[in-house]
Design goal:
Blueprint (H helix, E strand, L loop, with lengths): L4 E6 L3 H11 L3 E7 L2 H8 L8 E5 L7 H11 L5 E5 L4 H10 L3 E4 L4 H11 L2
Parallel strand pairs: 1-2, 1-3, 3-4, 4-5
Helix pairs in contact: 1-5, 2-3
Bound molecules: magnesium ion.
The site of magnesium ion has 6 residues, from loops.
Length: 123
């Protein structure tokens, strides 16, 4: 990856935001944080191309990751989305990949894993 990325992190966990920020520091121009799908849609709906990558948690209050992803696609989002979840059942992972998420990353993860996953999505 040559250019630094603008990333939106959507997660209800403050510790995940802090950890992602630390892991992604080498590759980010900026990282913004929102805490649920309602905030994510609000942030993106009039600014769909604002980010190079969206990291989207599955389980969140108000609006979960899969619902948020569906809404964003309906709005015309083209930005790659990496789903983040502690769900490890193959059918859960396949369901989201079939719906068009670019990558799926399980919690817990390491810096090496997240950087490797992102390099698969952004090249
Ligand atoms: Mg969560």
């Amino acid at each position: 990856m040559t250019k630094k990325l603008k990333i939106l992190s959507v997660d209800d966990s403050k510790s995940i935001h802090a950890y992602l920020q630390q892991c992604l520091e080498p590759i980010t121009e900026k990282i913004e944080h929102v805490y649920n799908g309602v905030e994510a849609v609000e942030r993106l709906k009039n600014d769909l191309d604002a980010f190079d990558l969206i990291i989207l948690d599955w389980e969140m209050p108000l609006k979960d990751g899969p619902t948020t992803f569906k809404e964003l696609k309906e709005l015309g989002l083209k930005t790659p989305v990496m789903m983040l979840s502690s769900k490890s059942r193959p059918e859960d992972i396949m369901q989201m990949l079939e719906q068009g998420v670019a990558e799926y990353m399980m919690k817990p993860f390491t810096q090496d894993i997240v950087l490797d996953k992102i390099s698969q999505v952004i090249n």
